[in-house]
Design brief:
Elements (H helix, E strand, L loop, with lengths): L6 H6 L5 E5 L6 H14 L3 E6 L5 H5 L10 E2 L10 E6 L2 H12 L2 H9 L1 H9 L3 H16 L4 E5 L12 H9 L2 H6 L1 H4 L3 H22 L1 H14 L3 H15 L4 E7 L3 H16 L4 E9 L11 H17 L16 H35 L5 E5 L8 H11 L3
Parallel strand pairs: 1-5, 1-6, 2-4, 2-5, 6-7, 7-8
Antiparallel strand pairs: 3-4
Helix pairs in contact: 2-17, 4-5, 4-7, 5-12, 7-13, 11-12, 14-16, 15-16
């Protein structure tokens, strides 16, 4: 299997400015991102972690009641990092509102924010969340306040949709149908109005029948007001896309050692390669390594010994040496049953570890140049800084 990557080397490198954690749902991306941010802060970096996942796990793990759309410094008793740790959770609507205010003049911004069509697309338009994630990442990078920005992406394949978001939003808002909505405003002379009027009227009537007259009017007013600010949106998105492809950005794919999660991980790896994104490695999270020395007792030997103990317990021969002649009075049967259960657990752990190793080996054969680091499963969920610190130690191979 490919060797693991140097997590501390990545975090300590002053040229590393952005780390993006991506992967399918339920594999521990949020925990991984928070653990990396905590470790980076404790090693001296000015770090901010951005989660796009609306769940509040990150705030809870950092010991905070909640996170908002602007970075909040993590300051809890006993936490004194060499650097600083800040955290935030993306609020898609507020980010969109702030962007409109920044790119449009005060009067036009108010027109846009009050427009019902805008209020709809700012929360439900396909690609809006991913576009706003790029916008927020660009904002954080532009301030220069942090040495390192760590991004926790949404679950499943949508985690890479922010790479497509600018083009998709551009295509939607710059498309033929939307452009037709602005035709009356663009027709500056009576003659041009006359030329386009009949065609637009037929178009408007058809769309109005489907969408409703008021929504059509709202959409037309939105596009007309939005038109002059759209160039700024695209320009910012292009800069963020350049940032994601720059030398200072690192992508980490997080996966569980399970077939579906590793298939998704392969998709991410292939997509990142296609997009020329800088991939540093795969984090195989929640693995189950064998802690005992397998050379001393193999899975086969453990199962054989367990079956022998269970037979002895079932036939009542486990206490033949009992001093008072009463079966089980000295607890031998109970001890044999416990020993048999431990032996079976040992055999199951060996089988699970072997299955996980085969799955990771298959991934490595398909992606031989992708370093893999494994993080053993913890006995309980991470819910505080100590737990995150433990995960960070395991990420770094400690």
């Amino acid at each position: 299997m490919t060797g693991s990557f140097d997590v501390d080397g990545l975090l300590d490198d002053p040229e590393t400015r952005v780390v993006v954690c991506c992967g399918s749902g339920g594999v521990g991306k949020t925990t991984t991102a928070a653990a990396l941010a905590l470790r980076a802060a404790e090693r001296g970096r000015q770090t901010v972690v951005l989660t796009i996942d609306p769940a509040r796990r990150l705030a809870q793990a950092l010991g905070l009641r909640e996170l908002g759309n602007h970075p909040r410094r993590v300051s809890v008793p006993g936490f004194e990092p060499r650097g600083e740790l800040w955290a935030m959770m993306l609020d898609m609507r507020r980010t969109f509102d702030d962007m409109v205010r920044r790119h449009a003049g005060p009067e036009r911004a108010e027109q846009l924010l009050a427009n019902p069509f805008y209020q709809t697309i700012s929360t439900s338009f396909s690609g809006t969340q991913e576009y706003m994630a790029m916008e927020k990442l660009g904002q954080l990078a532009a301030t220069g306040e942090w040495d390192l920005i760590i991004v926790d992406t949404p679950p499943s394949r949508s985690a890479l949709d922010f790479l497509d978001a600018p083009n998709r939003l551009s295509a939607a808002l710059d498309g033929r149908m939307i452009r037709l909505l602005t035709t009356p405003a663009r027709a500056g002379t009576w003659g041009l109005r006359k030329v386009v009027g009949a065609g637009f009227s037929m178009f408007a009537k058809a769309v109005s029948t489907i969408l409703g007259g008021q929504l059509l009017a709202d959409a037309s007013a939105f596009v007309q007001a939005f038109d002059s600010t759209f160039g700024g949106f695209r320009e910012r998105a292009e800069k963020t896309a350049e940032l994601l492809r720059s030398r200072g950005t690192s992508f980490l794919v997080v996966a569980a050692p399970e077939p579906d999660a590793l298939r998704e991980a392969s998709y991410f790896v292939d997509r990142l390669s296609t997009e020329s994104m800088p991939l540093d490695g795969l984090v195989a999270n929640r693995t189950h390594p064998v802690l005992a020395d397998v050379s001393e007792i193999s899975a086969i030997d453990a199962l054989a010994a367990a079956e022998s103990l269970e037979r002895r317990t079932a036939t009542g021969t486990g206490d033949e040496g009992s001093a008072d002649g009463t079966d089980g009075a000295d607890g031998t049967d109970g001890a044999d049953a416990l020993a048999a259960a431990v032996l079976r657990l040992h055999a199951d752990r060996i089988a699970m570890a072997g299955r996980e190793e085969r799955l990771l080996a298959r991934f490595t054969r398909a992606h031989p140049h992708v370093p893999v680091t494994t993080v053993p499963a913890l006995p309980s969920d991470v819910h505080d800084l100590d737990g995150l610190r433990d995960v960070g130690n395991r990420l770094a191979g400690g």
